[in-house]
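quick one before i forget lol
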Amino acid sequence: MPVYSFTLNDKTVSVEAPPDMSLLWVLRDMLRVTGPKYGCGVGVCGACTSHLDGNAFRPCIQPVSGVAGHQVTTIEGLGGETLHPVQQAWIDEDVAQCGFCQPGQIMTAVAFLRQNPHPTDEAIDAAMSENVCRCGTYCRIRKAIQRVSR
């Protein structure tokens, strides 16, 4: 089996895995990084959203072979010693109910705000529309993103 090396949350990791193995399963089962959640497995719900070279992506549909030599950041690598401003806004706005989708929501919001630091409500809604929250906390998600953009 091939060995793939990539940077995960600012640390170089190497894993031996089949080339077509989903990065989500490599993260969760082999590297014990459990922030990205399994929701749908087909890239639709956004629960696993992480960053690949700074851009939001879905590890559930990304084969591990495609991240060799790249930078992967999960929710665990977002804030470091302190909370990222988006994580703090999530707390301040009491966004989470069940919390299952929140790592993916936060990672999507961080990538979005890098590209659009002062978005309109419509831009926020469009950017977050591909992340599903079964509890329906969309209004609080928008408020948290607005808080960070101020």
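fyi DSSP finds five helices and five strands in the chain.
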